[in-house]
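Per your request, structure below.
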């Protein structure tokens, strides 16, 4: 049995090597027929086994390799047109769209090593303590929980860690530019009528798999939870529970990307980037918020029914 497993691993690795070779060769589309020549499986079996091993499809893996190739070329100073051709993109426009979706940066910004990307940041007092917000002109890029009463040294460390996350960007402490995000967050946490916290996001980090997990988390309603197992199933990788938990822990946009709503199969809490206690407080706050909103709807429903009666 172990011999068969090792053989399958070797075949899958050879497929991954071939996909990377095609991407490095600047081929625009994956040659799936070449993969069937390297494996004793049908196209459907290749797809399934590859997903189980690499948490993505061969086609998506190929696109990620294209992106890696283009990114490396841009970082080396290659112009955008040449990088798009050499990485197998049909046009600079296709490269631009792929790069922005994948990284949040434009090709030109990556070519400059992230220099020129402007991030405003600031600290704000909320119902969940002090938070640090950061955003580009395109949307919110970071929301960090800093604790109920952080010291000046702790806030300085938050800024230092934030700088390490975005080493080449221009960082500017400018709370005024972020006030609208803070106001939305406070209104949401206060359960004000019609208040939701769904700001535009500019996610500058994350693998394809992590982004799929984060996108699925955003579909979980406030006041609800989802198990890591169910989350793994929804993103198409039921066996990748640990990878899903790791993706949640890698999220740097708290609340807006609600990784606090992911829980263990037995209902216990674990694995929150900012600590389990803050995860518990957020869930309790959202549960109370949902209860208040539901109770406020009951009188209105009763009134509507009364108006329908003869």
């Amino acid at each position: 049995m172990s011999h068969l497993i090792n053989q399958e691993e070797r075949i899958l690795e050879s497929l991954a090597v071939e996909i990377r070779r095609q991407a490095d060769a600047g081929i625009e589309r994956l040659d799936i027929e070449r993969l069937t020549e390297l494996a004793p499986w049908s196209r459907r079996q290749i797809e399934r086994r590859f997903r189980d091993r690499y948490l993505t499809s061969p086609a998506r893996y190929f696109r990620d390799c294209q992106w890696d190739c283009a990114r490396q070329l841009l970082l080396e100073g290659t112009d955008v047109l040449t990088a798009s051709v050499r990485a197998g993109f049909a046009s600079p426009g296709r490269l631009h769209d792929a790069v922005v979706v994948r990284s949040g940066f434009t090709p030109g910004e990556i070519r400059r090593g992230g220099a020129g990307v402007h991030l405003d940041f600031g600290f704000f007092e909320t119902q969940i303590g002090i938070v640090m917000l950061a955003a580009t002109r395109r949307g919110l890029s970071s929301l960090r929980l800093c604790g109920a009463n952080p010291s000046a040294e702790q806030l300085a460390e938050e800024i230092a860690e934030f700088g390490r996350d975005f080493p080449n960007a221009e960082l500017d402490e400018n709370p005024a530019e972020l006030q609208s995000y803070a106001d939305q967050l406070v209104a949401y946490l206060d359960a004000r009528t019609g208040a939701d916290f769904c700001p535009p996001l500019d996610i500058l980090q994350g693998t394809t798999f992590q982004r799929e997990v984060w996108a699925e988390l955003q579909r979980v309603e406030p006041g609800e939870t989802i198990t890591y197992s169910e989350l793994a199933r929804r993103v198409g990788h039921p066996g990748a529970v640990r990878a899903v938990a790791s993706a949640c822990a890698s999220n740097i946009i708290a609340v807006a990307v609600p990784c606090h709503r992911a829980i263990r199969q037995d209902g216990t809490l674990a694995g929150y980037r900012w600590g389990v206690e803050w995860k518990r407080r957020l869930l309790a706050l959202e549960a109370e918020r949902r209860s208040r909103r539901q109770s406020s709807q009951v009188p209105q429903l009763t009134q509507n029914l009364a108006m329908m009666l003869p």
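Residues 288 and 294 are 10 Å apart (CA to CA).

Regards,
D.
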